[in-house]
Each structure stands twice: as C-alpha cells, then as structure tokens.
C-alpha cells in the first residue's frame, strides 16, 4: 500500500510540479527538490526532509483541505499549507510531517512579524502571498505559534523555502526520495 501511495504522489509531483511556481523563476518541482536538498544537506531528520519535499503539495493537490478550501489566485492556492497537510494526513504521513507542512505559511507570518530584516528578503511573489495569508502575526498570535509543536522545524522549513528558488540548481531528483517515503509510510502503518 505504501508503495502505491508513493508512486502516485511522485507521479503527481512529476507532472503537476512542472508548472510555474507562481511568479518565481523555478517550477513547483524544482522548488520542492531544492527545499528538500537543503534539509538533507543540513542533516535534518527524514521527517523534516519529507516535509521540505512536500511542503507545497497543496498547490498541486487536486482537492481541498476537507473544508472545501482551495482558493486559487495568481500566487497559487491561498490555503495550500492546510490543503497539503490534510492530503498528507490522508495518505498516512506522520503528524510531524503534516504539522510542519501546515505551519510553514504561519512561520513566514511569524518571522515577518518578528524580524523586519526578514521581511526585506522575501520575493515579490512571497510578499503578495503573505498579504493573502493574513499578513504579519501580532504579538499574541506569535507567542502562541512559538509555543506550538514543531515550532523550530517550521521555522527551518520556512527559511529553506525562501532560499530554494535558484534557476538551474542541480539537486537530486524525485526518485532519490522514493525509498524514504515508502519506509516512512510503512512505519506509520505499522504504528496503527
């Protein structure tokens, strides 16, 4: 079962991922592979590597998040983090992977609210999506977000997300993640 899920997911990423990454100079797939490669090279756990690879799956996932959320704009699916997390949970990925994916947009909102220099590093597309995603977090929301589970992993993913937009970067392909995805899903099925 894990193999079929992974093969289907890899096919989706391979085909739908060829689309433009909403105003950036890389495709969805190039961005995903660059983000995952950064996590791998920086020695993160397999769960963080998978979250990095799959963090924008909500942009290409054909369904909403269970509440019908799938508003598509010029900067992609506005609620792509919740759409992606819902899809990953449905496929059987761990709560750590799904939660880090779910939190990567709020991590941007948190960082913008906490660090004015960070805000200046965002691409034009990322600034526009930030506006649609609720803008910078206020103090109370930021404090609550910082107390939540996997906070540091969400921040690390967000910072990698921002750096993974290099046209022509040479990184390992999708197939290099197949075995760890299968092992991850198989371990989650064994835990149930």
UniProtKB/TrEMBL annotation:
Database matches in Gene3D superfamilies: Hypothetical protein af1432 (1.10.3210.10)
Span of the signal peptide: none
A Pfam family hit: HD
Native source organism of the sequence: Geodia barretti (Barrett's horny sponge)
GO MF annotation terms: dioxygenase activity
Residues of the HD/PDEase domain: 24-96
Keywords for the protein's UniProt record, in alphabetical order: Dioxygenase, Oxidoreductase
UniProt protein name: 2-amino-1-hydroxyethylphosphonate dioxygenase (Glycine-forming)
